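SEVERITY: medium
COMPONENT: batch folding queue
REPORTER: lab tech (J.R.)

DESCRIPTION
The queue accepted two submissions in a row. Attaching both inputs and their returned structure tokens so the on-call engineer can compare them side by side.

ATTACHMENT 1
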Amino acid sequence: MAGAAANEADQQAAPPASDPANARPQVDPQLLMAARLGNSKRLKALLGLNKDEAVVVVDVVPLQRTPSAAEAAGAGDVGPTTSAASLDGVTTEGSSLLHVVAACGDSDKFRDCAMLIYHMAERLLVARNGKGETPLHCAAGAGNAEMISYLIDFAASGDRNTEAEKAEKKVAYLRVHNKCGETALHHAVRAAAAAAGKKDDKMKKQLMALDCINRLMAADPQLAAIPLPNIAKAASPLYLAISLGEIGIAQHLFVKSDGNLSCSGPNGRNVLHAAVSHDQDDNKDQALQALPMVLEWLENKKLKTPGVDMQQLTSQRDNDNGSTPLHLAASMAGLPSLGSKSAGPSATSLLLEANESSAYQPDNQGRYPIHAAASAGSLEAVKALLDKCSDCATLRDARGRTFLHAAVEKKRSGVVRHVRRSTGLSSILNLQDDNGDTRCTPLSDPSIRIRKLLWILRAPFGESRGDLFDEKHAKIIVESKRDMEKMSENVTAAAQVLALFSVLITTVTFASAFTLPGGYRSAGDDGGAAGTPVLARRGSYAFDAFILADALAFVCSFVATARLLYAGVPAFSLGSRFRSINGWKYSDQLPL
């Protein structure tokens, strides 16, 4: 019955914006000003109500509404019909006067205006603005708790309705969604989050916003657990609170709903996705509370919503690329903002403890969480996955790549270094993907290097014809030569620039050996032989240190100049030139 009432309310309140003939007129500026200021007297005067009529209208039963313009026109009565028809005007945002009053204030004068407008035009209670919002959405978004209660009472009014019918009408009104799939509770959550971020009267405003949540939940305890509409961006109130970083509001929703909470989020995500995403917030202490809190609810079965359990949430994939919460945790752990270590366990470790099998669930491209961690350069996440599930090392994506291939492709040196140093991971060092590539780049494809070496050594040919070797690998060889030429130019340019500095240092250090500070002694000076340095006194530590530093600088700069001159000559092999600058450490990555 509640669902039917909700659908009926939605149909009645659907904005006829698609039909230009049904476009609503602009609201009268004087009526708009009176509504925004909460001036009920001015509002009555503009609507053509005298004092006696105003009292009757305020005290009238809601179902005894004023006749419509068409009905009154047929009866020949034009006074009240003009007043009621003038309430059909909307603002540029499509908001009626009741929307404006609900959003502008919560005091008695605004509530009087709301009551006056409602009794003259009950249809405005379920009218939608351009965003598909009812006046209840506006009141909740503004944090007007008393106005929320008034509007809810209006929705349940009517002497001809039974108590059950009133309850159904109230629930249906509370569960109306806007175009984004949000109810008034979503707006109340946002208002509470905004109040928490304000410095002025922070506590007072947050309490008022939480009061809005309390009144909405008191009217419908299941409001935070209703299914989301078929809208991609629709999210549950709990997801919204966690994504905004308001853990206190999330806990408040949990208490008020007694665990009846929807965990759904936009695009197929759930609250675990939101909790993991929020871990990148600068406020570490608060951010790391979200994921443990939700996991504790799931572990102890405190969430009573049907279909919500640990297995389902931890393995749920989103609609974008099929990422589970563990994919997200593993990839986000490599962000620079998360470089500092937390005192508690990481999000990856927490999710692995909750559901170890999620480490074996791929995304839409066949990538497992360990591939996501390696691509992001998250060494801690890689270690956590390997410690918990050691056989994750051999998992391959849709292209046949291991996590080491992903790390090499993204140039994540930390992950590659860890694999090379771990004896237990030596088996994946030379594994090939579907293209036959190992962890090396195509420029250092070992198959090409081995075949070329065998050809140079005149080894017997196997199944492949030696004369077709270059033809078979023509594309790779051409690309290799082109890249080698470009690299040679870069090495020459770098050597020339660096040689300028080394030559300058060599010249200065050589000259300083003959122009010592303090000068030299003359023939008539006391304290030493003529021509000796003035500062060269017996036991002078400063002079000895200067001579030693100058000699060391001269030798080092001279050697550097020689190596740079060698590296700048294109006639020598690229490998030897590259080693003369960067040393032997990276020489094994160069092509032959």
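ATTACHMENT 2
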Amino acid sequence: MKILFYVDPIVEGALPDWKAGWLWSVRSMMLAIIESQGGLSDDLQFVCICSDIVEPIAVSLLPNCTIHAINAAKLVPALASSSLELAMAWSAKACDIERSQKMANVIEHACGDFVPDACITFSPAPFLRVAFPESALLHRENGMFSIPPFASTIYLDSAGMQTNSTVYARSEEILSYQPTDMEHKFLATLRDHYAQRLFGDANPLKHWAQRRLRDYPRAVLLALQAEGFYSYAAYASFPSQFDLLVHLLDSVPTNVAVICTEHPRFPAVPESAIRSLQSKYPNLLWDPVLRNVDGASQYLMEYVDTVITVSSSIGFQALLWHKQLIVAGSSQLDFVASSHDVRDAAHKGKIENMTADRVLSWLLTRYFLPTTLLDDGSFLMARLAHEIAISKLPAGQRTEPPVPELSVLTSAYLIQDVKNEESYLGEPGASAPTQIAVFTAEEEEEFSDSTCFTYRASILQQPQLLRLVFPVQGRRISRLRIDPSTLAEVFETREISVIGDDSEMLWTWRTGQAFPTEVSGLIVTQLKTSTLLVCTDNDPHFSIDWNASRSPRRTISVEIDISRPDSVRRLAESEAATVALTQELSHKESELRRQERLLEREIGLAQAHLLDFARERANVAAHEQQLQADLAALRSKLHTAQLESAVLRNSLSWRVTAPLRQIRRLLS
């Protein structure tokens, strides 16, 4: 089987290497397929197309894959005036035929003689059908659930994405679907399972929401998205989400609370703008804590009756809790939206329970797939084989892919303890979030950004256990570099542990033991019962390692007992200021020494010039004296000659020969 993975080379959001994250999914699928086939063979061929910027990361992550890089500069402005315009063009219902053919030519040129049996793309790519009309095409993206405590889901759609998706095309069929009794039971179990993990005491936003909402009889949730990406811009009524927010605030009564959440990595509205709006609209509820809690929208479902978004998967989650959905545009959510006008948020509403259950039963059993199913290479290979087979049939003869057994889906969806791969922890009143980075490496590998996981956490004054979890993804990780902050910070810690599969302790440290020796930008001070970590620059870090033979296969978690005592915060700031001043002083001293060396050189040159001048002056004086002497000698000779001439003119011979001299002058 020949498989082409397409990682879009165009740059969205001015983030050239952002799409490198998709390479981890490529790696996972490749490894699952290879393992299911008993290893790599000539019958398995993998090719990945990506940007030239992402290419080095692809080469390091995909050793069993041929990488073909496309320069994004060759696509913009050749095919569109901007990357966003081009991405929106690929997502359109009716794609420009000429533009698709040009892009298909680029793809064919990159692949050479390689013709895939199946193409897997992570973004809309209609030109792949033009380039490889006989190949199966699957669109892979995150599904209805992607953030813990939900089990992660994806979809594999042969039709397309968003308004080109199977869901959009078959919306009437989905709305009329009749769930079985077992599917009704499955949904009830699913709701109960996740209600216990999202709401009540399990809700990290419980106290914030209760305190802020006590004066409002009802609330609506506006889930903003990443601006500057096709997934919002191509489907939104308001190109600017600031305008969307203002329009909503102007449309609802002041006794209706508007809770505004954002994409955790790409806030759409600056905090200063939100604060300004809050002065005019007190019913706008927003707090930095909402940026700290990953998946804040899903924790707020129990407090709102209406959800407003454009194309976010939170729109499908609204069905799970029977909330009214308003789509501020047109997207794959259209068929479950009660309105497309945000002014309707002024009125309370809900979706009918039966309608919600019909849609959810179809989506969760036939469309969205738990990611763990794809970890089974046999399942993925079977799905690919099915898509390849039906791609060669006329449209009317194509069959549906096999539906996984409900018992398998139930086990996959109802995972007991789903942990964050990227942690966003926060409490009302906590500090601004701290960015923590964990760099991973194999035994002989250097640390790099391509194998780094980032986390944001609000570190409290009281001790807390911070748990940072990340997938191994087929690597033999035995070294970590932990960057506790990017600012001048001070932390108090008591214990740090690294845990692998089945709770195996890979590495541990406690106060009283020697701290790791590979430290930079940190001052480590042992106290009686804890250890202070004072970050003195913007890149503090320490490194740890363990025996490579104990490398885990699934996940690694780093557990840090940590707090940020307010009483020593000034110490960190003072220490950082001292270090900064010391560095500045050192720089000034170095500059002073450099200037002194330059001055000494100039003085030396000046002194040398003075000596040269003195020598030249002496030479000129000597020469002048010689000239004066020569002149005096000449004058003496001239005077002698004049005397001799006078004597000659007065002589007899001069007078006798005078006529002869006159005749000579006349003849001449």
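NOTES FROM REPORTER
The chain has a mean pLDDT of 87.
No errors were logged for either attachment.
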